[in-house]
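call fold(seq) -> tokens
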Amino acid sequence: MRKIFLLPFCVFLLLNGQANTKPVSSYRIGQNSSPAPGLAGNGITDISASGKAIWFGTGHGLSRTKDSGLSFETFSGVEGMGAGSVSGLWTSGDTIWVATAGDSFVKTVGQVLDFGTGLSVSVDGGQSWQHFDQPGPTPIQNLTYDIAVQRGIVWITSFGGGLQKSEDWGHTWSVVPPDEYLFDPGKWVNHRAFSAIVVGDALYVGTAGGINKSLDGGQTWVSFNHTNQQQPISGNFIVALAHQQWKDKSILWAGTWKAEDENEFYAVSKSEDGGQTWQTTLHDEKPHNFAFDDSIVYVAAESGLYKSVDLGETWYLFPTIEDPLKQEQVLTRDFYSAYAEKGDLWAGSADGLARTTNDGYDWEIIRAFRPTGKNGEPRTYAYPNPFSPKRHNILQEDGYVRIQYNTLKPSTVTIKVFDFAMDLVTTILESQRRPGPRDLNELWNGKNDFGDEVANGVYFYSVDIENDGTYWGKILVAN
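ret:
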């Protein structure tokens, strides 16, 4: 499968030595430590099950649950993991491969660019990890988006680094162009690789030039793109590949985005004959990832979470996900990842993780946050902060910031927002009962009491808790 940190088709910095490099031979071996409790972050870019564990790639690292979400553990550099966001994840049994990434300002081009921070592998279910630096002459614009393993050979797709393979479990890597041309991602869009999957003897690789298939371990390739078949894929930018086996059907699903041809379009493409012919569905939608539960297909996409019970002929769009027990909702329609098994559905978004066991009638929302009023933490804080109402937690055209606080017992709570001159902007909550002791949050959409968007600047807020006290925080609004 594949996902989210999608980059523009810009100049690739492996050329001309425009960034500092790190040797591939530098790695740490066998780090062993206890993972930290809790979910790493709220941007859930990948979900993969292995054994009794479900693994979650997040914008702040790798997490897992071994008890269906009752508790979570997070892995970091302390355990031997790479630093940064999880950009690629592959699991099978006790083996877990993880790719990580970050971003940095590159002075030579005057831009903030993504870079790979390497790959980490565990063969004992996460008890110990081995880390390898990012393969290639530079990590800049060379982050790994997807990982696949075929007969002990590890394949990675790394945008500017292209398709690479390791035959010695990550110690050394070689570039494998999925065509007959010499490797040059600056020239050939088919060398900019984003997704990969193994289906039996077949290796499928998605690039910015289409889908490439090899039946001999990458020695020879067949290419499927928007123009070389009578029933082609919708677009050549392949952000995700997934396989569904149901009864006698072997179905390859692809997230096929518009690339460079004006006739391409965003959609889901699927093939039941190994790529010889394709059907397109969910036209004009931007899919990020797939999940399957027998015959049921789920698509995590930019405008929501979709479900099909007839292999993509028709689709149902889940409504806004709400958790009535926690009185919370997922404040986005953009879903990055999904996992489903035996009626248990997990969905990952930029605003946390959601789970349902009854087809979406009831949801549990799981979100990472710092507990307030404990271990030296303040009684209240706001996130994201700085807050952009035009970019953060967008739902039904409004953006939201969360004001986190805690009660020590069931209490009456009032929350108000003031401008820099301490004039009242809006009252978010007026003498409302809240349960306790509990960590809670309330939402502000960046508007005043008249429904107008506030100007950029610093705003103060007060959380008044009956028979407890008044606690203050501030929010920087920056559109």
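The CA atoms of residues 162 and 193 lie 5 Å apart.
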